[in-house]
Model the fold of this input.
Amino acid sequence: VAVRVTAGRFAAIDLTANPPDPYAQKARALVPRLVEAQSLAIEGVTGATCSSNAIKLAVAKALMGSGALVP
Done:
């Protein structure tokens, strides 16, 4: 996951891996919702809970690695 933060806000979240798993593909819908909410505290994608949680965890790790605050 690559997260670009501009002026303290999520500017973009790019999923760098593209697994063929149908649940992972379904969970990709979470990305624009994360950017819109500007928070990791949103509900996951129904039917892709584990993949949704994995995306949120990866975003959190990317943010922590950059020294940004995790909302």
Remarks:
- The first helix runs from residue 22 to 27.
- Helices lie at 22-27, 30-37, 49-66.
